[in-house]
Amino acid sequence: MTTNLVPLLAALLIGVGAAVQTSMVGAMGRQRGAVEASWLSLLATVTGIALILGVRSLRAEGVVLPAPFDRWPVLALVAALTVSALWLSTRGLPAYYAGTGLFAIAFLIGAGSLGPKLGVALFLSATIGGQVVGALVIDQLGAFGAAAIPLTPARLGGVMMLLAGVMLVRFGR
Fold first, then answer.
1. Which long-range contacts (CB under 8 A, 24 or more apart) does 47-50 make?
2. For the chain, which terminus, N or C, has the lower number of CB atoms within 10 Å?
3. Gap between the terminal Cα atoms of the chain
4. pTM of the model
């Protein structure tokens, strides 16, 4: 199992995206409730995956799902239904919240493609490292209406230790 820098950096960036998604879901949860925010995020995830699979099917790249989910018209229908539900469900919220679930697509595809390359432990430790780095920035900024939490030397030290843990998982074999 060879590991190079690009998949590791991709896993870290996926983690940063997960921190953004968490912050956005939290903001929607404050306005609508946690379950409702999860619903909105899930709709965006399903829409995005259906569109990706639909494009692959149109390009004849092969979608390895049982019929009828291997055909682009069915996938386009799923995308149309879920994007309609997403549009209806996000009324009254800032439009960018409709994209919240797209961050989950990166994680899911990363788990399927980077997990086997890096190993589960390294993939997850890198994504968690990215999540915490992203979360510190989000906290510092008070993004998406959350209260700002300043970056302190102790918090920065904690992240550095966590990232050192990622390196131990990588090189400690």
1. 47/79, 47/82, 47/83, 47/86, 47/101, 48/101, 48/102, 48/105, 49/105, 49/108, 50/75, 50/76, 50/78, 50/79, 50/82
2. N
3. 11
4. 0.90
Count structural domains, the chain: 1
45's CB contacts (< 8 A; 6+ apart) are 101, 102, 104, 105, 108
Indicate the burial class of 43 (C-beta count within 10 angstroms; 0-12, 13-18, 19 or more).
buried
User: What are the pLDDT digits (tens) for 19-49?
Assistant: 999 999 999 999 999 999 999 999 999 999 9
Domain span at 40: 5-171
- Farthest CA pair distance, the chain: 55
C-alpha to C-alpha distance for 88 and 80, rounded to whole angstroms:
12
